[in-house]
Specification:
Length: 105
């Protein structure tokens, strides 16, 4: 059964562009990881200021292997002299109970 990891990251409005640019710069770095199934960066369209980083993995072991990998460390190193882009981060973990995909035409 797949697992979903959602990192809820609070980003001040004056750092949003930098935050999104960081993810764009490392685009594709996780896609070759064993067990990787999906990634989405969800931007708030209200006044919450919380981005959701959604990844789905074939197993918890696959996710943990990625967290311990050099690619993870490289993607999460500090990249700004202005300090962290976010002010808070919380990792949520779920098992995928039901999945639906669009019907093929």
């Amino acid at each position: 059964m797949s697992v979903a990891k959602i990192n809820a990251i609070t980003v001040p409005s004056d750092r949003v562009e930098e935050f999104v640019a960081r993810f764009a710069a490392r685009s594709g770095s996780v896609t070759s990881s064993p067990g990787f199934e999906a990634f989405e960066l969800l931007a708030p369209n209200d006044d919450r200021g919380v981005f959701l980083v959604y990844t789905r993995w074939a197993s918890e072991d696959d996710f943990q292997a990625w967290v311990q990998s050099p690619a993870f460390a490289h993607g999460h190193r500090g990249q700004s002299t202005d300090g962290p882009v976010s002010t808070h981060s919380e990792l949520w973990s779920f098992e995928v109970a039901i999945t639906e995909a669009p019907a093929e035409a």
